[in-house]
Amino acid sequence: MAALLPAEWIKNWEKGGKSEFVQLCRALSENKNHDVGFRDIQQALYELAYHVVRGNLKHDQASNVLGDVIEFREDMPSILADVFCILDIETSCLEEKNKRDHFTQLVLACLYLVSDTVLKERLDPETLESLGLIKQSQQFNQKSVKIKTKLFYKQQKFNLLREENEGYAKLIAELGQDLSGNITSDLILENIKSLIGCFNLDPNRVLDIILEVYECRPEYDDFFVPLIESYMYMCEPQTLCHILGFKFKFYQDPSGETPSSLYRVAAVLLQHNLIDLEDLYVHLLPGDNAIIEEHKREIVEAKQIVRKLTMVVLSSEKTEEKEKEKEKEEEKTEKPPDNQKLGLLEALLKIGDWHHAQSIMDQMPPFYSTSHKPIAIALCQLVHVTIEPLYRRVGVPKGAKGSPISSLPNKRAPKQAESFEELRKEVFNMLCYLGPHLSHDPILFAKVVRLGKAFMKEFQSDGSKQEDKEKMETLFSCLLSITDQVLLPSLSLMDCNACMSEELWGMFKTFPYQYRYRLYGQWKNETYNSHPLLVKVKAQTIDRAKYIMKRLTKENVKPSGRQIGKLSHSNPTILFDYILSQIQKYDNLITPVVDSLKYLTSLNYDVLAYCIIEALANPEKERMKHDDTTISSWLQSLASFCGAVFRKYPIELAGLLQYVANQLKAGKSFDLLILKEVVQKMAGIEITEEMTMEQLEAMTGGEQLKAEGGYFGQIRNTKKSSQRLKDALLDHDLALPLCLLMAQQRNGVVFQEGGEKHLKLVGKLYDQCHDTLVQFGGFLASNLSTEDYIKRVPSIDVLCNEFHTPHDAAFFLSRPMYAHHISSKYDELKKAEKGNKQQHKVHKYITSCELVMAPVHEAVISLHLPKVWDDISPQFYATFWSLTMYDLAVPHSSYDREVNKLKVQMKAIDDNQEMPPNKKKKEKERCTALQDKLLEEEKKQLEHVQRVLQRLKLEKDNWLLAKSTKNETITKFLQLCIFPRCIFSAIDAVYCAHFVELVHQQKTPNFSTLLCYDRVFSDIIYTVASCTENEASRYGRFLCCMLETVTRWHSDRVIYEKECGNYPGFLTILRATGFDGGNKADQLDYENFRHVVHKWHYKLTKASVHCLETGEYTHIRNILIVLTKILPWYPKVLNLGQALERRVHKICQEEKEKRPDLYALAMGYSGQLKSRKPFMIPENEFHHKDPPARNAVPATVQNGPGGAGMPTSLTINTVRLEEGTTEETADKLKEKSQGVVKVINKTVNATPKVTTSNGNSASNSKIIKEKDDKEKSGKEKDKEKKDKTPAATPEMKALGKDGKDKPKEERANKEEKAREIKEKTPKSDKEKEKVKKEEKASKEEKSKTVVTIIESKSTAEKEREKEPSRERDLAKEMKSKENAKGGEKVPVAGSLKSPVPRSETSESEREQKRRKVDTHSSPSHSSTVKDNLNELKESSAKHYINHTTPTLSKSKEREVEKKDLDKSRERSREREKKDEKDRKDRKRDHSNSDREVPQDSTKRRKEENGTTGSSKHSKSESPSDSPRLNEKEKEKNKSKSSGKEKGDSIKAEKMEKSSSGSKKESRHDKEKAEKKEKRDSTGGKEEKKHHKSSDKHR
User: CA-CA distance, 95 to 669, in Å (whole number)?
Assistant: First the structure.
């Protein structure tokens, strides 16, 4: 036979031999002749192996190639094994040992290709031993011999030949006889032994027959068990188990069914420990692995069902799906093989062998066994039996009998529970194995729940020992576990059993809500995933819920509601979760859903509350819309649903309220929306900024009027729901904490929450927080009894100082308490004495007020610094904060309106023919009753208001102490009372305006009504800018009511004379100019009052225009809101109205695309403004304008800011006003670390025009004159500037006697200013003559009022209209300064503005500061401010004490001034030439100087760092100026030295402060002039542009 492997292949194995061999093998294995191919392959493999044995080829090379070849045929491993077998025989005969070694190595290398068993068959034992496949060849041989002998030669024994059938017949007769007599198992056993011996019976078969008979006679346990037990002593222990196993095996055919009798026998034998469970368990089918596989399959199937339900199936796919499902169902109908393990388990449970049953259950997946109904029912039955005695004792409801359950006859069954402790040991364990399948036995479910109820009753009754308490705690936690693992899942699997749900609620309501919600959470999120059945139920519930929700409308609420109810009895969590998700998407579902929930059980309502809270707390949901400025609609929908559902149904509120409180604690205020809705719906208390004035008026009446006329919707039947809300708050002590948290959170919104948020959103959240506080406080006030209120709300000082509640909120919370308290005290006093006279009543009322308010007066003292109480008394402060609109006025018109409405209603009822008579009667009775209630309420309020007014009349003299100045008093009143309260609520805004009027009408001493109104209207920019949207609306209401009063006085001389004519609030001081004139107080006459009102209107316009021009969102929005609110009374003057209209129109154009909300506001206002145009009047009709007179003009009103100088003889103590401003600016200075450039210098930069000494640089009443003046040249302007100086002098003289009212500081300041102006302004000869003339005129006019130069006013007026472009630059500059100086606020003039004079600027600063203090300042802050002021005064006194001396008498003053005038004239001549060019430039260079200032300011600030605090007025001097200035200072000191000795040091200090500032201003002007010279050539073109733009503006 030719060789198949040529030698060349072996030599060139790696190069080509290997591949050749592989190809050969492939060809051979593909050979169609099977036998030939087989032999050839054998040969090829043999040759390859032989080359390895000879050493021509390495064994690993061979094994590699064999690995490649092995796959070519299925029998290749066998062929290879044959080859090895032949080689094994051949090599074992050879003498060369190395060949044998090569063979062994080859076989070892190929072990992975041929299995061990094949090799063991074919190779020699010695070879196997050398390969390591067997241990010892000798033993291997012996073993194989034994096996062969046993298989082929051993003979089987059979007893059948010797056994006799008669024996078996006798045995069966023996076992089957009647056992009722005296026959015992021992007797029978003896007979059985005899039969075995006599008839040669096989003992194992006898045992088998005993078991068979026992199966047929199960009732004779007591006989058979001892018999088998005794019999077993004769057998091997395993025999019984094997025989039983053999019986079970017999039934394991696919068609076989194991009889229950066999299970029972096995169970009884197990219970009596005659066999071991482990031994029997292995004989039973199916195996544990199969059970686990089946369980997994069930889970997968359940998930698939869920997936199908959630998938959207297209119609074409539906038919295919249905066909597949049918096939599957057919497969399923084939009967599954018998599960013997479960059969045994059932038998064990039936006989009460819990121990072994538990062992079997533990071998299986959780709840697998009980998911089979027979087992679940058997276990339920066992539980029934076990709990019977305890249930009979504590669980049976009154009146119910129930069918008793007999105990098991089996002594080894679990012990019946007599106590809760025993219940825990056994029954709870059984229930845990039952799990959700308790649903098969609703009766047992009810029993367990009733036992739980009975336990809770015992648990909650105190008085047990410590040990018992611990046991009870353990029991309680076990009960919660049972509820979680068994009761709730079982409820899910029950078929809509409402009774079970109610039964369960009976137990649940005894749990605190925290436990209940925890259980619901587990039920909803965990339980449904724990079992395939529950997974399916969840999917079906969602599917059904979708079906119902799709069809739910307002029309079919009832049928849909019933379906929802049905579905909710078993699976409320899943259903509500879906319903809530729909509500969050579609808010129009809220009403139908709320109506459809009326068929729920109590448990379901509680679950609904939990689901709502869970939905609210969902961390994955964003609470803001994508624009980050509005609250998400899902949250708004949920909140709205909350309110509606909690109002309509008796759901427990505690959890929801606690959730809101927790969110507030965490500093999150979004969820206040929920509280707001709940209170609104449940208590009928609405908070809205859109109230009409009629509604607001109704809100100032009694409760009945509020309900009828105060709200938008008629909210009826809130009595029950508000009672529920109140109870929830009181039971869980949440009333006060919620209030305090909200009050604190208002600032939290701004300072903590608002960090990264949009300003608009921060405002919204602040408003929401504030509104909810007001609403919630209102609810508590109207629903809590006096005792409850007083018990819960601490005193005002504790609220503010310990709980850090803002003062406005603290008084808001305390106010109802005071009112309740006073009324109850008043009632007590009335009962005590029966005197019925009105005076007696008033006296008692005042007594009760004093009793209640005295401690409050004490308490409020700690709220502010002692300095505050110098001006206003604690009594006044407390009175202001404790009263409400209800106390001040009766809304008669509102009462009349509501009564008339009811009359109309009654008439309509009479006319209605369709209404049935009994309904008519009812409706009429209701209307009549309401009408009577309203009239009664009106009468009651009228009496109350009269009593309050009497009380105020008595109190008023002690209200305002005014130990400092009237001005300071007004400041404190506005800062601490009016401003914080007027933005608190709409009613408070109205109250504040009424209160001011009331204080005026009461003729309160030391209260200047004029000054108060002036301060309110003068500069509203800062107030408006610092408001939120709703606050702006309330501030607008306040201004509207204030304007209403002012307009009423302005409209008619008769009214003015009657209401203001001789009231102390309108008392003003006339300045006399003569040497002996003196000052006399006088009333402001009607015409001058009209001038003042015009000034106020002008001020409002100026502020409004400024806000509209800032471009800031908040400024524009707020001023538009305010303007809309004050529209009925402002603007009244045509030109002011037109100015506003232009600005608003501009806003409309600019904001149309950018900020649509501003555009909408502006458009709304613009439309309303146009409709008001016909009611506007020209200025000359609004106030009488005097013809321009030069010499004899009444002194201008000295009421400070911005003086729109009216020719009135009024001075509203500017002194105080200015004193206030200097104080405030001083405080500011101290707060900054560097010396800050004084605000006034900024205005000087913008316009080097000099203001008059009293700060009134312009007059509105000189508009005709202005038009002529507009053409004046720059020189004439300069003349006018100079002309102002002598005009100021006579007034300076008048100042002397005004010492009481005016602080020296101010006098000095003004005097100094006048001097500086004289020094600074160079004069030509003509101008000198003019000055002399002016001086003469002033001397002649001694007894007349102070002269004010009309030209100065007209210039100012002209400047005001002329410089819009300059103003804009100024605004920009100020912004940059503001940034540079760490946000120091600088008042920026509007575009109708005059360059801001000193007093106005500082007033606006003060206004801003007051704003700050009102909103955020704490007492400690204000105290530091006051301290700083004192330090500042001292330091300034030390620095400048050399330069100034007090002015004492008029004559001396005049002398000093004359000398100064002469000196200044001389100096001015010298400098005239140099400065002439300057003056021309100055007019044009405003805009340039504006631009330059920011660059210079930093340099100046650096220089100022060296100076003390008082350098706030100064700018750095240029070195060239300083020597000259020092000379001037010396000269002045000489001229003043005569007065120095008489002046006391305090006056010197005060004057010092002001003089230093004004001097430095003059230096700064010089410095500016020089800089302008340098820049003259470059600046020309730009100046021209500026003039053009300003002309256009005019």
Answer: 100
Whether 954 shows a pLDDT value over 70: the answer reads yes
Q: Which is more confident, 1558 or 707? A: 707
Quick one: which H or E segment has residue 1357? helix 1350-1362
DSSP string of 12-69?
Answer: TIIIIIHHHHHHHHHHHHT-SSHHHHHHHHHHHHHHHHHHHHHTSS-HHHHHHHHHHH
Reported as a pLDDT band with limits 50, 70 and 90, residue 412 is: confident
Name the token pair of 109: 């290398």
Q: What are φ and ψ of residue 918, in 5° steps?
A: -65, -35
Encoded tokens for 719: 């009595």
* pLDDT class of 1461 with cuts at 50, 70, 90: low
pLDDT band at 1541, cuts 50/70/90?
very low
User: What is the rounded distance in angstroms from the CA atom of residue 405 to the CA atom of residue 396?
Assistant: 13
> Cβ contacts of residue 123 below 8 Å, gap of 6+?
84, 85, 88, 107, 131
Read off the pLDDT band of 1524 (50, 70, 90).
Answer: very low
The predicted-structure confidence for 607-624, as pLDDT tens digits, reads as follows: 999 999 999 988 888 777
1514: alpha, beta or left, given left = phi > 0 and alpha = psi -120 to 50? Answer: beta
| Residues forming beta bridges with residue 1513, ordered by sequence position | none
* CA-based max dimension of the chain: 169
Distances, alpha carbon 84 to alpha carbons 51, 1121, 1134, in Å: 13, 106, 124
* Preceding amide of 1064 cis, omega within 30: no
Say which residues have a Cβ less than 8 Å from residue 942's Cβ, sequence separation at least 6: 890
Contact 1034/983 with Cβ under 8 angstroms?
Answer: yes
DSSP 384-414: HHHHHHHIIIIISPTT------PPPS-TTSP
Q: Helix 373-390 and helix 340-351: axis angle, to 10°?
A: 20
Split at pLDDT 50, 70, 90, the class of 856 is confident
| Cα four-point dihedral sign 943, 945, 948, 952 | negative
Confidence of residue 246 (pLDDT cuts 50, 70, 90): very high
Question: How far apart are alpha carbons 679 and 1028 in whole angstroms?
Answer: 23
Q: Are strands 1080-1083 and 1067-1070 parallel, antiparallel or unpaired?
A: antiparallel
741, pLDDT greater than 60: yes
Instruction: Write b or e for each residue in 118-137: b if 16 or more Cβ atoms lie within 10 A of its Cβ, otherwise e.
Output: bbeebbebebbbbbebbeee
What DSSP string describes 796-830? HHHHHHTS---HHHHHHHHHHHHHHHHHHHHHHHH
For residue 651, how many other CB atoms are within 10 A of its CB?
23
Give the residue among 1042, 1148, 1140, 1049 at the shortest CA–CA distance from 1090: 1049
User: For 204-228, what is the mean pLDDT?
Assistant: 93
| Angle between helix 672-683 and 719-731 (nearest 10) | 140
Identify the helix (H) or strand (E) that includes residue 1460: helix 1450-1484
Q: What's at 1390, amino acid-wise? A: G
At residue 1388, the pLDDT reads: 39
What is the pLDDT averaged over residues 1579-1584? 44
Which of 747-751, 869-873, 963-967, 1089-1093 has the weakest average pLDDT? 963-967
Average pLDDT over residues 621-637: 79
Yes or no: say if 524 and 577 are a contact pair by the CB < 8 Å rule: yes
Q: Is the per-residue pLDDT at 284 higher than 80?
A: yes
The type of residue at 1195 is A
Residue tagged 């068959």 (tokens): 121
What is the chain's alpha carbon radius of gyration, rounded to the nearest angstrom?
53
DSSP-derived letter for residue 1258 is B
Concatenated DSSP letters for 310-334?
HSPPPHHHHHHHHHHHHHHHHHHHS
